[in-house]
Amino acid sequence: MLIHDAISPAPRCLRMFVLEKGLQLPAVTVDVMRGENREPAWLVAVNPAGQTPALRLDDGTVLAEAVAIAEYLEELHPAPALIGRTPEQRAQTRQWWRRVELNVTEFIHNAFHYAEGLPRFTPRIPVAPEAAAGLKRVAQDRLAWLDGLFGAGPWLCGERFTAADIWLYVWLDFGAGVNQPFDRMLPNIGPWFTRVAARPSASASRELLAGA
After folding, report:
1. Is the pTM of this model over 0.90?
2. Taking 80 as the threshold, does the pLDDT of residue 97 lie above it?
3. Strands (DSSP E) found in the chain
């Protein structure tokens, strides 16, 4: 297998997932800043959606979307379980994962496209700069909402550290660097973020897999 990695939040989510799994997978780096992922060679041979990361399987099949790749790797390498060992655990993880993606990270993502990332993304995707401020407000509102749903912890799924924690952490860390800092005084998410940041995979995931 071969991971097509990049400097971007979604690939970092996958890197942190792989690191938590203790997997060592070969990787190559895609230069998304130059737009390599939008060039014909990438679109034809790897991912016609023009996105990263991607995982090329041994038979040449390519999987895209970080969430789908994480699910695939969990099936191949179930321990340590980052999605779940039982149907109930897997459903709980996916519940929080969806809450994180649909209510928080997608708003952070699009707000970046329409504001700080506007010069880079204007030639590539439809953009709506007039929506950026509103999207940022929604992301922060929904994060406060998520904070209110937080249980006894220490993680989103209670005692289990999961892919849902990884996805929320990486995107909040990204947001802090693109003029979308979150309220560190949130009573649950604030201490939770500090706990995740202390995990070795959090800092290690900043480095591209090809350089590891």
Report:
1. yes
2. yes
3. 2-5, 27-29, 54-56, 62-64
